[in-house]
Amino acid sequence: MAGQDADIFDDMRHRLITGEFGYGSKLRAEKLREDYNCSASTVREVLFRLSTVGLVEFQEQRGFRAPHQSLERQHDLTQMRIMLESEGACLSIRLGGVEWESRLTAAHHKLSHIEMRVRSSGDVIPLLGLWSRAEQEFHETLIDACDSKLLKRTHQVIYEQFRQQLVSAETNYGYFPENIREHQAILDAALERNEDLMRVRVHDHLARNLIKPLPQKSQPAAVGRSSAM
């Protein structure tokens, strides 16, 4: 990807996973080009690339849209995150050294600082972009020493789709105290080098986003509070 295209791709990806576009919103290249001072064809190419990682839906004759909300998809993405993050974190515990511990501790410090600021101010919106990046950095650093490029790449794709599914529906950010405790518990398990505890902590952090039970065709589902990011 050329430099400008890469910048547009990264910015659009961030806008998509932080909920700037609502579920099913039409993504018009002719309009978006104004945000980037580029051609509509450049934006279309970026949107095609984003569709290959599941952040944009494309249909012939209908064009590009932000993905629709899907409880089944939320459930599947949550299950995949639990599996990938648990395995990646345990491999990192096994293979990572002091350098990995230091990077993870630093990533957690940054995330915790932002989450504390959000909790004290009671308003996440001004810090949403910073928090989103710091939260992703922490979870990616958690699995970074797993020695599997495929696992890390797959986790990134699943993580971003997961965030996108939840963030557009989020209206109450009162769960930050719980998130702070859970992120600390994950860090503690990593520093204790306790793989069994790590699997429990990752599962507990994400499991509330599973759908119980899964919806039938014409039957509403009971949705757990979408808090763990």
TrEMBL record:
Claim: Transmembrane is one of the keywords in the record: no
Keyword list, A-Z: DNA-binding, Transcription, Transcription regulation
Molecular functions per Gene Ontology: DNA binding; DNA-binding transcription factor activity
One Pfam family cited in the UniProt record for this chain: FCD
InterPro entries xrefs: GntR_C, Tscrpt_reg_HTH_GntR
Domain HTH gntR-type residues, every copy: 2-69
Name of the protein in its database record: GntR family transcriptional regulator
Native source species: Roseobacter insulae
